[in-house]
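ok trying again, last paste got cut off:
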Amino acid sequence: MADQHGTVWAVGERECSIQRRHQKIIEEAPSPLVERTDGMRAKLFDAARLAAEAIGYTGAGTVEFMADDAGDFFFLEMNTRLQVEHPVTEATTGLDLVELQLQVADGGQLDAEPPPSRGSSIEARLYAEDPAKNWQPQAGTVHHFDVPPNVRLDTGIVDGSIVSVFYDPMIAKVISYATNRRQAVGVLADALARTRIHGVRTNRDLLVNVLRHPAFLDGATDTAFFDTHGLAEL
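nice, full thing came through this time. structure:
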């Protein structure tokens, strides 16, 4: 987040390696890799701030990097906007990033440093799709949709909503927060398992199985997760 007065914040990092078709489906903050790699967070933050400062950037943006197991990382791209997974940053920092970017656009000035990050937050993208059929998108009427109230739900879907063939099949984001990662994982997996959605097939069961998989629980998340473990194991 960068204002018009020269202040640039690096507002935490996110881990977005659980992907299908090169698109994220589970995201979290903080990153397990960064947590266990000495000095990586400071280097990431420095690189992100440098990228924003080099172009005189203002507003909200996301600098993306690819990293290896040793913690060496490489610039991938910068998305000059908020991203789908911004709720996990909001949960761990207490910031309202949508409100903050409007304040910055209106000429507001950021504090010298962002608030510290606390706890752990995980987001799962609920898609109307069939993972067993090569992630085939699904369409139809959602007859009933109910998510437990102990998690954050970002969605436009209600009972009777139509999932169209004309748009991305993501129908909701479900976000948990807890004081540590294991608790956040457990809360989200339980909430998804108790979610009731009738009328269209979704990736809900797959999300629950990923969250409960031993490799995920150990923080062994990378972009080859499904290639490594296979859908049959999930």
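cool. The mean pLDDT is 96. Residues 40-54 form the longest helix (15 residues).
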